[in-house]
């Protein structure tokens, strides 16, 4: 065996903002783990937590939490997953099964869950180790590069919409037509909602319509709240990419018992008058990705309804360039690294 075949190519963060190409030795999966031969990995804004060092992490670290690959080694005590099976790994590295949250069935909030690409190496690599409890099964008809963005951007928006109290025919607004939003609009349309897309600038209107939105609001031109009220008020607003001000505005555009779900992390605080919440019993909540069962459902639903992310692919070696392009807001709308 040549030394080259004992190692694999990876792109790792070595200092804040610095990604470099490297070769790492293959490792065997431990108990409860599998090893993947990675085929594709999406580049997500949350990768900045690793690359910019926003989380306390140990350098070097391989980012990437929208990874799809084939299982090429199975550790001990792993049931239900087989060699050669194509699987995905999202942001949540896998639940422990024994903490209080897990025992309640709240796998997303497992207290011993690691974040993929933050606490352990992720998918900007030809190989990675993953906890079996966090694996997602990939439907046969879905290409690996198409499946990748659905493991985070897709799961996060699908889970929020699916678990929200809105029902078919209700007015549901999506703020931000980017990596998450362009999927949320498609999911909302296929779930039977009356979909309002809210973006910045008139140019996104045609795209929103193509994605399935019934209405488009240009937030640079009109206020979000009055525009939503003119449509009768929103039952639900999903804020995918906005600061605190847009969330606060959205609350004023809700009908009674309406809800805003914040998905986009923003340093900007949300300032809401308590009266806007009290009168009408309106609420704001946050949602973090989704559990493995919902991830399976996201992929199945996407395949059934022909929902897909708009992607451009780049080879793994160009990961630093892909990351920079995504951070500059130039991705339309997801970049996927292919191995």
TrEMBL record:
What is the required cofactor set for this protein?
Answer: Zn(2+)
Q: Which InterPro entries match?
A: ADH-like_C, ADH-like_N, ADH_Zn_CS, ER, GroES-like_sf, NAD(P)-bd_dom_sf
User: What are the alphabetically sorted keywords of the record?
Assistant: Metal-binding, Oxidoreductase, Zinc
Domain (Enoyl reductase (ER)) spans 17-337
Quote the Pfam families the UniProt record gives. ADH_N (PF08240), ADH_zinc_N (PF00107)
Decide whether keyword Metal-binding is in the record: yes
Give the protein family: Belongs to the zinc-containing alcohol dehydrogenase family.
The name this protein carries in UniProt is: Alcohol dehydrogenase
Q: What is the lineage of its organism?
A: Bacteria, Pseudomonadati, Pseudomonadota, Alphaproteobacteria, Hyphomicrobiales
């Amino acid at each position: 065996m040549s030394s080259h075949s004992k190692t694999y190519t990876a792109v790792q963060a070595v200092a804040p903002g610095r990604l470099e190409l490297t070769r790492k030795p293959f490792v065997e999966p431990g108990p409860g783990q599998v090893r993947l031969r990675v085929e594709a990995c999406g580049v997500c804004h949350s990768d900045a937590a690793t690359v910019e060092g926003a989380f306390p992490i140990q350098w070097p670290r391989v980012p990437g939490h929208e990874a799809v690959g084939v299982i090429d080694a199975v550790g001990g005590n792993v049931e239900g997953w087989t060699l050669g099976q194509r699987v995905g790994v999202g942001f949540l590295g896998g639940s422990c099964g024994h903490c209080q949250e897990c025992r309640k069935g709240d796998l997303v909030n497992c207290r011993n869950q690691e974040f993929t690409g933050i606490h352990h190496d992720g998918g900007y690599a030809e190989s990675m180790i993953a906890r079996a409890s966090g694996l997602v099964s990939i439907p046969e008809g879905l290409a690996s590069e198409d499946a990748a963005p659905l493991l985070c951007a897709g799961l996060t928006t699908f889970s929020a919409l699916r678990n929200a109290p809105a029902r078919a025919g209700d007015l549901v607004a999506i703020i931000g037509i980017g990596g998450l939003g362009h999927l949320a609009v498609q999911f909302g349309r296929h779930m039977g909602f009356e979909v309002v897309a809210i973006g910045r600038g008139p140019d996104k209107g045609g795209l929103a319509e193509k994605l399935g939105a019934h209405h488009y609001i240009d937030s640079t031109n009109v206020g979000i709240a009055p525009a939503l009220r003119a449509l009768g008020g929103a039952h639900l607003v999903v804020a995918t990419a906005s600061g605190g001000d847009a969330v606060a505005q959205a609350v004023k555009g809700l009908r009674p018992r309406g809800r805003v779900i914040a998905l986009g992390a923003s340093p900007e605080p949300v300032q809401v008058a308590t009266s806007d919440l009290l009168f009408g019993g309106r609420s704001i909540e946050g949602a973090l990705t989704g559990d493995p069962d919902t991830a399976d459902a996201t992929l199945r639903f996407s395949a059934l309804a022909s929902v897909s992310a708009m992607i451009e692919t780049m080879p793994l070696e160009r990961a630093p360039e892909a990351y920079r392009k995504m951070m500059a807001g130039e991705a339309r709308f997801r970049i996927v690294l292919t191995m």
